[in-house]
Amino acid sequence: MYVFHGERDHDRPMSDNAIRSALRRMGWANGEMTPHGFRAMASTILDNMGYKQEWLERRLAHEEANNVKAAYKRSMAHVST
Fold first, then answer.
1. Parts of the chain with a pLDDT under 50
2. CA distances, 26 to each of 7, 23, 30, 76 (Å)
């Protein structure tokens, strides 16, 4: 399930270019907001609200690409600033 699902395929995320185009149509300049900026903003807000960082990382698909490394990675470090 995606917040911004693809127009033709709801099982796939909306492309970065589609989101970027929508941002430009809404008046955001390229240096003001990016598709990834929304992900970072959501992660920060939800982290500040007390949601577990591990959940946020999984929902944002920040998983270890290397399967062997992922198998041995037992904890997720979280640093608050």
1. 75-81
2. 18, 5, 11, 37
